[in-house]
Amino acid sequence: MVNGDVNAWKFLVAQYLDNKISEADLKEMLRKAGHEEDMEVLSAVLKAHWEEAKNVEDKSGIDWDEKFATMMVTAPGTPVKKNIRRIPGIAVAACITLLIAISGYWPLFKKTPAPPVTASVTKQFDIAPGTVGGVLILANGKQIKLDSAGNGLLAVQGQTKITNRQGRITYNTADKNNEQLLYNTITTPRSKQFQLVLADGSSVWLNAASSVRFPTAFTGDVRRVEITGEAYFEVAKATRNGKKIPFVVHANGMDVQVLGTHFNVSAYPDEHTIKTTLLEGSVLVSKGNAKQLLKPGEQAQLDQEGNLSLYKDIDTEGVMAWRNGYFSFDQADLPGVMRQIARWYDVDIVYEGNIANRRFGGEISRNTNVSQVLKILEESKIHFRIEDKKIVVLP
């Protein structure tokens, strides 16, 4: 038994079960299994995962040990042996499938077209995906519905012109130094997202059920905005009298300070943590006396107790999935998955009976009707019923 073979199989199986395996590694795993390479090693690796996974609470009544042993026989029809020496390549997929089933983790499809819709999830209702839209609230309280606002000038506040160009709001100020300090707010309800360009040239993308409050012009020594929900920022660099002007995002008691950078802040009130993820540049995240400086690919998480933690090697593509048109789940539990669906499709979620504790990984397009998304989730043996603007999760 070569140590390199053990490490190779451990890596491949772990990557697969964590839903992080690359296309190249997946092909290598299937090739090795198909040629029955190092089967004794693979048997030991799978057995170790099996012993760990089967300890998870399971109410199915299935004898998982018997199923594992049955699949580990040399060939169909061969009696089960106590001392397993080799595992046929054809059994690898079945073993991994059972590992997934007992551990409660279900990989989803990765940006693949949704399967045909069936009556089990649609009944007589279906819900279209979210679209571009929101509400602009001016400093005087006037509200402009952005869904139906045409291209061109929307409003004038002081020396600032507010313009809509194909679903993107832009603020242009003639004299920033003498502009009156006025604040506007853009809100996106559930099922809507929107983009705006601030007076300093910084761009903000709002996810569904979010808001951003901002000045029509930045006149002081700090550029400050406030958000709820989730927003992605591309901050423009700005100076005054030769000094750089910091840009600060305030989100539910936490501050993110930058000079010029790209980052995402998720601060939904119904989530357990506030997450700030850096894509480019650097940011300083602070909550009271706690501070954390981020580098690209890092994420700061603020929990409900006020603890600030740093996480490295973050999947930034997954974080930005919402802006790029798809859901991305990484070991997400079912309530977390359904909260994202509720925001994007503007539906209420109801749980009926005891729902299995499952975790999900993968990506699903946000540009499909809700019934198609639910059909993909049904592959993990979670079932649903749609009733008007309500999704009932069934046991």
TrEMBL record:
Pfam families: FecR (PF04773), FecR_C (PF16344)
GO molecular function: sigma factor antagonist activity
Origin superkingdom: Bacteria
Source organism: Chitinophaga niastensis
Keywords, sorted A to Z: Membrane, Transmembrane, Transmembrane helix
InterPro entries assigned to the protein according to its UniProt record, in alphabetical order: FecR, FecR_C, Ferrdict_sens_TM
Name this protein carries in UniProt: FecR family protein
Leader peptide range in chain numbering: none
Lineage: Bacteria, Pseudomonadati, Bacteroidota, Chitinophagia, Chitinophagales
Gene3D superfamilies for this protein: 2.60.120.1440, 3.55.50.30
